[in-house]
């Protein structure tokens, strides 16, 4: 079938939404209430809950959001998103300040952070370029192989990555006299990055690029016949997802105060997938909901069972949610709402 030039493709005109409707979408009452709750939460919660639970959930949710964007809107399930976050973490520790004085270059934060994001985004773009020509299980296996290869690279290389011990004492800089690793500042820093990532994904999927990406997800051959460059769109999606994962990687290394091979172990590659699926791959907010469930189980499951059996608990919860709702917790919530909405008088006397 001959390729149709992109300029010749005529899309039907779309009536622009009124300014009032746009404001209503942005300032939805439920969204405003959720935002207010997030802003008030750290002032009523303990520092432990604020930092260990809420802060960690926002950081892991940001990394899982990159996978949600790729899988939900691009149809590409990548297991290398934690690898991209790990590349960002190692880059920050090497370019910035850490315990490895002979390895770290001691760059100022305003130079180290942009360079870190650029390196991680470039790595994500390369990963995308290597994997976008495959689909389904082959994409998963290629990205998993890349993640495993990076794990053994940082584990066995002592000159650049300090091997098994990794790089420690990687802390956020004190800007404006604020210790950004304290529970309250770190929570608001993570919240700001999470909201920015969420808004970026929501905005992107409504742009011509995002709509074309969803078309490629549904029928790549037809989109190619219409003149869209399928490979370029997919690689661009990997780059954008890599930027989101890179920001999460910077926050994660600041949260832990270190970066080691254990941070990019195969188990964490799978955990990011579990988080994304738990919340719902088709909803950007699902990544953060899945992260909350994961962190709560990780933090408090040891009070009920042995620490070694945490993966068993996660596996049982994962299987239960997938069996009852393939679209995750948000899909289950939507089913319950539709069921009660279709039977408004089911519980009436």
TrEMBL record:
InterPro entries, per database record: ABC_transp_permease, LivM-like
Name used for this protein in its record: Branched-chain amino acid ABC transporter permease
Lipid bilayer topology: Multi-pass membrane protein
Location in or out of the cell: Cell membrane
Keywords linked to the UniProt accession: Cell membrane, Membrane, Transmembrane, Transmembrane helix
Main location: membrane
CDD domains in UniProt: TM_PBP1_LivM_like
Membrane spanning stretches: 32-51, 58-87, 107-130, 137-154, 186-205, 226-252, 258-278, 285-305, 311-334
């Amino acid at each position: 079938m001959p390729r149709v030039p992109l300029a010749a493709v005529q899309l039907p005109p779309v009536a622009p939404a009124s300014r009032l409707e746009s404001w209503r979408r942005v300032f939805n009452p439920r969204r405003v209430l959720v935002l207010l709750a997030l802003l008030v939460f750290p002032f009523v919660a303990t520092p432990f809950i604020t930092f260990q639970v809420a802060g960690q959930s926002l950081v892991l949710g940001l990394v899982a959001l990159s996978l949600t964007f790729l899988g939900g809107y691009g149809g590409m399930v990548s297991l290398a998103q934690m690898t991209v976050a790990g590349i960002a973490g190692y880059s920050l520790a090497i370019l910035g300040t850490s315990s490895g004085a002979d390895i770290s270059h001691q760059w100022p934060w305003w130079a180290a952070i942009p360079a870190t994001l650029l390196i991680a985004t470039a790595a994500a773009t390369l990963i995308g370029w290597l994997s976008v020509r495959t689909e389904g299980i082959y994409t998963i296996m290629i990205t998993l192989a890349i993640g495993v290869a990076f794990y053994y690279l940082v584990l066995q290389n002592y000159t650049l990555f300090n091997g098994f011990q990794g790089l420690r004492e990687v802390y956020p800089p004190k800007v404006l006299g604020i210790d950004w690793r304290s529970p309250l500042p770190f929570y608001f820093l993570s919240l700001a990055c999470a909201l920015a990532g969420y808004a970026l994904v929501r905005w992107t999927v409504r742009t011509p690029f995002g709509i074309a990406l969803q078309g490629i997800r549904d029928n790549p051959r037809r989109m190619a016949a219409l003149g869209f460059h399928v490979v370029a769109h997919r690689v661009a999606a990997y780059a954008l997802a890599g930027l989101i994962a890179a920001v999460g990687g910077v926050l994660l290394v600041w949260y832990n105060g270190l970066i080691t091979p254990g941070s990019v172990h195969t188990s964490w590659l799978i955990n990011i997938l579990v988080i994304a699926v738990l919340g719902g791959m088709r909803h950007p907010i699902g990544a953060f909901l899945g992260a909350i469930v994961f962190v709560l189980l990780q933090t408090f499951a040891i009070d009920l069972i042995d620490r070694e059996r945490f993966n068993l608990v996660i596996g049982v919860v994962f299987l239960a949610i997938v069996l009852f709702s393939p679209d995750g917790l948000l899909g289950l919530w939507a089913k319950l709402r539709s069921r009660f909405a279709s039977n408004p008088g089911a519980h009436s006397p």
